[in-house]
Amino acid sequence: MPSPDRGPQELRRVLGWTSAGAIMAGSVIGTAIFLVPSTIVRELDSVGWTFFVWVLGGLLSLGGALSYAELGAAFPEAGGEYAFLRRAYGPLWGFLFGWQQVVIGKTGSIATIATGFALFLGFFVDGLQREWLHLSWGEVGWGVTGLQFVAMTAVASFSLINCFGVGRGGAVQSFLTVLKVAAIVALAVLVLGAGGGSWDHFRQAPEHPAWTGWGAFAAALAAVLWAYDGWNNLTLVGSEIRDPDRTIPRVFLLGLLGVMGVYLLANLAYFYALPPEALKRSERVAQDVAQLVFGDFGGAAITAAAVVSTLAALNGSILSGARVSYAMARDGLFFSPLARLHPVHRTPVNALIVQASFASFLILLFGQDRAGFDRLFNYAVFGLWAFYGITALAVIVLRRTSPEVVRPYRVAGYPWVPLIFFAVAGLFCLGMIFQNPSETAIGLVFLLLGIPFYLYWCSGGKAEAHRKSSPGE
Length: 473
What we know:
By secondary structure, the protein is mainly alpha-helical.
């Protein structure tokens, strides 16, 4: 592979409406719609409340996305939240977001998605759970399973694809996203058309009807918000989207409404095929529904769809995530080689390599079992939602500090839409503190460890970093 240019260059605006929409929708629709509907039914014990929370979660996510749309249309730069936060609050806040993404947030997400792909692939390939390699250093030993090998291979493969041009990565994303959306819609339509279910399932009362409280509702909403997560990936590639002032707002609006429609259609099919009590007991609801209606072939087909779904989410995360460390390095706030682009393809090759290496390290560290990635997710989720909230609030801050900036799109319902999303993000973070205090504390430590590194990089390139990262610039 040719080496990257020695100096930082500009990324190319080559992503059109289709690729941008695929990055957004493909990053959102992952494994959640195949797994979490049963969790939500168990928490709420009601068909009506289940559909309500899916709509509410979609509308809340849309509020956050439209807040980001105003920022993305006004400041279509690489790095998304990194660029918005440094303008609104100063370079430290932008750096801390980027630090969290590089150390545990985006790299952890990539590692988790890749392991999810390997787990679904294990349905077709035997032996992935077994240890394939044992590493030892003196008395210390470390086993590497087939799942970890497959996950790391997937990360390396899609990182390599994205080294050869954002247009190529966008084309792969478009293909995989169309494939998985078509599979989910086809499953739902075929289940509803097969006639093997019953509309009476929607009227059945649960065996133990009760309002289980706001805690259960919050848990269900958290699961739904996780299912809608990933829409922010679109702004990370803002400097590579053609006509960003029009494309970003339209993709956010139409894309999230489309995702909401797919999720509601899938839930409609699930409830039609299975009664509520059976849904509550299902661990892999999509596979159980497909197997019930179409036999073993249906179960295998929906598992294959889940494999494709995880690959699309993985490619979207890899493509977008590398732009954060690239933007930080370009501004003098991270290792300078990460700002270099491929001389032909104009992709942040070094940033992609570092991101893939760190994600692979996390796979080796946490990927022995699913519980390890649950811990990793809990370490990262507090910081992710804290930054979601203050980024939405940046809409208000930047309207006051940078009123001269042309805003091709202004979020409807201002200032209430960004304020409501900020409040929801705050409540989500508060819930994490009470629900997982130790893991949240560890995540905060990871985040705060970025401060001395920020001071180090600032002292090394202070003038350049300050010039490029001053708020209101």
